Amino acid sequence: VQLQASGGGLVQAGGSLRLSCAASGSIFGNMGWYRQAPGKQRDLVAVITAVGGSTHYAGSVKGRFTISRDNAKNTVYLQMNSLNPEDTAVYYCSAVRVDRKGEPLQTYWGQGTLVTVSS
Hints:
Distance between the termini: 37 Å
Number of strands: 11
Number of helices: 0
Largest sheet: 7 strands, mixed
Radius of gyration: 14 Å
Structural class: mainly beta
């Protein structure tokens, strides 16, 4: 199983970025994004289900970030708008490997991509 994240970078406050994460090697259920700022724990940003595309967001990003996925490509996206310096962090994608019945087996993580928002 591999998760390859991309799309991070440096952006000014108020700007936008789009992260992508391509998963391969298995069947995946929930996919999501987490972030970890320096000296802080890794927190959930957003998650999306495989069937139906239901989403859940952290309160701090609701209305600014949008998570989506392309099941045919096993790829999850995070569109980030109205970025502010508090969004600066390493962003990690996650994917839950499931069996053919959809039962969760194991969570995998991407390598992380740095997002830096300047004021």
